[in-house]
Write a sequence for this structure.
């Protein structure tokens, strides 16, 4: 066993354990593939669009090599303004699809919230917003599909 570099970086403390038994790594959840153990930027199973972390990631690799660009300038991203903006960055594979018939949307939203053990409120609109916020926090998005 050795000192865990990830624990040192993330929580600032020295922890002695093997790399595969790291409790910090085990708590990471990937919104790309839906697995625990790694972050979305480290995912090699599902590749889709993700936010660049540095300005240099926006420069093609061959241009960086040609000009000897080796800096890393972090991009200070602001929090998304609203839920729809946050949902835009989530992969289609991480969608909670709510299929409903005309006039039955409220029941389906409540049923979905019970499935995820979320407490409901009186108004349907508030329930939908609550479900969307929960989904985005967990790396998912909500899609409402009207069935005929």
């Amino acid at each position: 066993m050795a000192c865990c570099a990830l624990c040192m970086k993330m929580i600032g403390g020295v922890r002695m354990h093997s790399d595969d038994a790291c409790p910090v790594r085990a708590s990471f959840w990937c919104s790309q593939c839906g697995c625990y153990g790694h972050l979305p930027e480290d995912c090699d199973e599902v590749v889709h669009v993700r936010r660049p972390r540095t300005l240099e990631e926006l420069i093609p690799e061959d241009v960086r090599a040609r000009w000897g660009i080796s800096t890393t300038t972090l991009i200070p991203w602001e929090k998304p303004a609203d839920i729809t903006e946050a949902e835009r960055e989530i992969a289609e594979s991480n969608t909670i699809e709510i299929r409903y018939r005309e006039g039955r949307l409220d029941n389906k939203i409540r049923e979905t919230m019970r499935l995820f053990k979320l407490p409901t409120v009186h108004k349907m609109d508030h329930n939908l917003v609550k479900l969307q916020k929960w989904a985005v926090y967990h790396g998912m998005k909500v899609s409402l599909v009207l069935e005929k």
